[in-house]
Every structure is written in C-alpha cells, then in structure tokens.
Amino acid sequence: MDATQIAQIALALALGVSLSASCGFRVFIPPLILSGASMAGFVDLSSDFAWMSTWQATLGFATAAVAEVAAYYIPAVDNLLDTIAGPASAVAGAVMTAALIGGDVDPALRWALAAIAGGGTAFATTSSTATIRAASTTTTAGLGNGLFSTLEAVVATLLSIVAIALPVLGFVLAVVIVVTIARSIGRIRSKRSETTA
User: Fold this and answer.
1) CB 52 within 8 A of CB 31
2) What pTM was computed for the model?
3) Dihedral sign, Cα of residue 41, residue 51, residue 70, residue 155
4) Burial class (CB in 10 A: 0-12, 13-18, 19+), 6
5) 19, 98 contact by CB (below 8 A)
6) Cα 74 to chain centroid, rounded
C-alpha cells in the first residue's frame, strides 16, 4: 500500500466518519445526501456500491428520510425509534464508509475500517442522542422533544453537506459535536446522581 492509497483511505474515512456521525442524528438523511452527491459527480463511490448512484436509490432514501423525520415528531414514537435507530445507524454508517473506501482495498480491511470507524461512530452518536431525548422526555414531559428532533434533522443535514464539500472540516465538526454531546450526557448524569443522592 503506497502513500497515495493511504491518503485516499484517510480521506474516505474522514468523510465516512462525518456521514456516520450524521446518521446518529437521522439514519436516512446522510445516505440521501451521499446518493445525490454521487449522482451529481461530487463523490466517487466504490464500483460495488454503484446502486447508490441511481435515481431509484435516491428516491428510496428520500422517502425513508421524510418518513423518519416526520415520525420523530410523534410523541412516544420518537423514543421507540431511538431503540431501532442504534443498530440501523451503525449499519448505515458502515455501508457508507465501505462505499467510500476504494474497491482495490482488501475487503477484510475495508469492512473492518467501515465497521469500526463508520458503524462505531454512528452507534455512539445515536446512543448519546437517545440519552438526551430520554432526559428531555422526563424533564419536559415530551414537550421539548419536537425542538430536539428539529435540531437533530438540521445537524444531520448540515454536517452531511459539509462532509461532502470539505471532508476534513466535516470530520473535525463531527468530533466536536460528539464531544459536546458526551459532555452534555455527563452533566445530565451528574444531575441525576445529585437528585437521587
């Protein structure tokens, strides 16, 4: 593996991690944006993921994204979706990351990187947002969940667009967002501990 190939893999991972973090907020928005970007020629996908660059895939992702965003505004359904979103986002993150890593990379390495970097990032983000939503449900009787759902959809969209346009910046933003969420969860848990003490 030469330096050029290593640089290409690193750039693909930066983009994959950014999109995977976006999947942690909404599962289908990042694949929709990646599909559209690949059709427009902004992103090259591995040949075995060429199906993502079709109108059928884009339409399917768009339909799923609209349904997902709408469902998060339904009380109680939003918390139920969080239990499904964890595994779904991990799969989506891994698939998108694998699609971005060149097909000439050894398949075992490619999928290991995709599962760890993409799937791991998406699952960690989803788990964190689920914790915050649960806290919102408890403290606001669910009234604050709509605002949180809107924020999630906006972050998923903007982070995906930035990731496509500027992968390194997208990666940095993804790291900042994940760290910020982790700190918020730490504060939530501290308050719970103080309340129960």
Assistant:
1) yes
2) 0.88
3) negative
4) exposed
5) no
6) 21
If 0-12 CB within 10 Å is exposed, 13-18 middle and 19+ buried, where does residue 119 land?
buried
- Of 118, 16, 135, give the one whose Cα is nearest residue 82: 135
Q: For 98-152, how does the pLDDT look when each residue is reduced to its tens digit (9 = 90+)?
A: 999 976 888 899 999 999 999 999 998 988 888 888 888 888 877 788 898 999 9
pLDDT digits (tens, 9 = 90+) for 14-37: 999 999 999 999 999 999 999 999
CA-CA distances (angstroms) from residue 26 to 3, 32, 42, 152? 34, 11, 22, 7
Distance separating alpha carbons of residues 182 and 177, to the nearest angstrom: 9
**In contact, 187 and 164? CB cutoff 8 Å:** no
